[in-house]
Amino acid sequence: MRLTRRYPFSASHRLHAPELSEEENEKLFGKCNNPYGHGHNYVLEVSVEGEPDDRTGLIFERPVLDDFVRRTALNRVDHVDLNQDVEEFRDTVPTTENLSLAVHGWLRAGWNAEFGNKGATLSRIRIEETARNHFEVTA
Prior knowledge:
By secondary structure, this protein is an alpha+beta fold. 35% of the residues lie in helices and 28% in strands. The chain has helices spanning 22-29, 62-77, 82-85, 96-115; strands spanning 2-13, 38-49, 80-81, 121-128, 134-138.
């Protein structure tokens, strides 16, 4: 069984690859290459899989998952400039593909240490950038 929780957050970024020319960046990233950046109201989905506990009927305690996601990922990306405020994007273009990989990595790194004995596993993260674009990373 899978439990999925949704977490909205807002962040800005500029898509610009320094090894490309200004013309190549503009052609590749279009309006997302605006020198002043732009923002999104993202939605992060975090899915965990497991069997419901016999006593509680829950796969995982929702407040515990919410706290973990907030501490591990949301505090790093909510209301920030991804290019300037997130270490992983100082030298990496903060596309939502790369953002998804970073968030998955942060969550995965802390999962076993905090929840290894709870039975549920982190199975998927998904970030919705716009109504037309979303990106998924599976375990």
